[in-house]
Amino acid sequence: MKKVLVLGGSRYFGRGVVERLRDAGMDVTVLNRGSTPAPSGVAHLIADRDDEAGLKAALDSRSFDVVLDQVCYTPVQAEIARRVLRADRYVMTSTIEVYDQVRTETPMTESLVSPATAKLPEDDYGEGKRQAEAVFAAGDTPFASVRVAHVLGGEDFTGRLRHYVERLDAGDAVDIHADPRPSTFIHAREIADFLTWATLADFTGPVNAGSHGELSAFDLAAAITAEPRFRVVERDASPFSFDRYAVLDTSRATGLGFSFSTTADWLGEAVEELRKA
């Protein structure tokens, strides 16, 4: 039985990962700040990951086969984790946003972002994640990062798809760029499946995770209403209206053995979930 530590993972798709690992027979421990209870049947440690002394005290002498880090956003957090956590393998939930500065007209492969990429201010979300990846990659513990596509469905607290549903159902327009480009998306259920699979696998390095079938703001709107309305703006466009091609190449993940769904399989369901919520 593998011993797995999950940092964060008490809400949205993270909770689904914890439950899947538990149901697969893993010895699961969740560590968070205590504001949200862990799922039943797993151990629960309370600490602030930014407090190195408190983190050490909470973990005591524990070691793990795998750490799944759901809430690492900065290289400082990564450095603390490297110093404190003892594990045979470390998996970090990263993001499609690490490719923010990439300009391409073909799907983005993992090799387009590396530790050698020029650094931007750390408070930029994508750059903070990229720098955190670089910290772990430079360590001695085998490391993998999952670069997650935009997540839809489930108990999404970001409100991004809800923005489309509420505006279009009310007959309002969605604000878009003059030429909104497509990106990659994944359902909350599927990313929970993928992160569970990645935690129990043994590959290292970055891997992109997203459903097949790129979507633009036009596609999202068309899934909500037959006659969507749009308004072109120069700035402050609606979520998921991108001014660049932002599609992930997921061939590494499929080559490693994971089979993704297609967005058409679940997009309508994600919309209806929001309407019923």
Describe the protein's architecture and organization:
The chain is an alpha/beta fold and 277 residues long. Helix 1 links the parallel strand 1 and strand 2. Helix 1 crosses helix 6 and helix 3 runs parallel beside helix 4. The relative contact order is 0.15. The model has no long low-confidence stretch (mean pLDDT 94).
Protein traits:
11 strands; 9 helices; alpha/beta; 277 residues; 7-stranded parallel sheet; 32% helix; two-stranded parallel sheet
Approximate helicity band: 25-40%
Which percent band covers the strand fraction? Answer: 15-25%
**Based on CA inertia axes, which overall geometry fits?**
globular
Span of the ends, CA to CA: 37 Å
Strand pairing plus helix content: what structural class?
Answer: alpha/beta
Series of secondary-structure elements, N-terminal to C-terminal? EHEEHEHEHEEHEEHEHEHH
> Which strands sit side by side, in order, in the main sheet?
3-2-1-4-5-6-10
Number of strands: 11
Largest sheet: 7 strands, parallel
Gyration radius (Cα, Å) is: 19 Å
